[in-house]
Amino acid sequence: MVKKLPTRNELMDPTIEAIRQLGGSANTDEIYEKIVENLNLSDSLLEIINGKTGQSDLKYNLAWVRTMLKNQGVISNVGKGIWVLKSINSNYNKKSNISKIKETEEEVEDSEKWKRNALKIITEKMSPSAFERLIQRVLRETGFIQVEIKGKSGDGGIDGIGIAKINGILSFHIIFQCKRIKGKVPCSEIRDFRGAMVGRTDKGLFITTGTFTRDAIREANRDGAPSIDLIDGEKLVEKLKELKLGIKTELKEQIDIDEKWFKNF
């Protein structure tokens, strides 16, 4: 088992290999899990937190690696966290020049900065009840109906209920818990939440502004138990951005002059 986290350069080949093993395309979570599996990284390494970003060191470094590989033309981002190898035999320049490294640093920092700022507003400036209403709005915007906030504590961690609709035909009841914290949700809270689900629903949703421990993730996906979907802080603000709820994106106009076009006259 690896005793220390690989450096960014040491994560380049594993990232390409992970995408290759996943069929040449994969989402961010799939790449992460495949690298963890291939490198046999321990839970203690995965839970090392980057003091600057508040997320795991590995996830931050992998974001840097993906951006560097994208800037070198090895992979492309086709939207919603999907990464594709431009060639199944893709390779890269291991001796990246200073300008490429600086460009990557700036791009990753810009990407992470807005997430940190959004989470800071949610965790520090929103009241618990306001946060619950925000989650209610997010669920409605994503197709849930009859979303109700319980508004009472002492109900086994259940903050609300709703009905998820699939293509307007199928539907199933879910219960959800939303936790506005900066730290990690432990395995025990997932177990307690699942206990509250018994006899009410077979599907749960746990949303936090923080992160989940590896044991919590395993517990949520444990075989033979009702499944619990997990949404951490990073995924939450990305969903807010996608839904344009409190987070706006501006596209800068890029003007290119086609010199050849003028030569036609």
Automatic annotation (TrEMBL):
Residues 10-85 form the Restriction system protein Mrr-like N-terminal domain. It comes from Tangfeifania diversioriginum. Residues 124-238 form the Restriction endonuclease type IV Mrr domain. This is Restriction system protein. One of its GO terms (biological process) is DNA restriction-modification system. GO terms for molecular function: DNA binding; restriction endodeoxyribonuclease activity. InterPro entries: Mrr-like_N_dom, Restrct_endonuc-II-like, Restrct_endonuc_IV_Mrr, tRNA_endonuc-like_dom_sf, Type_IV_Methyl-Rstrct_Enzyme.
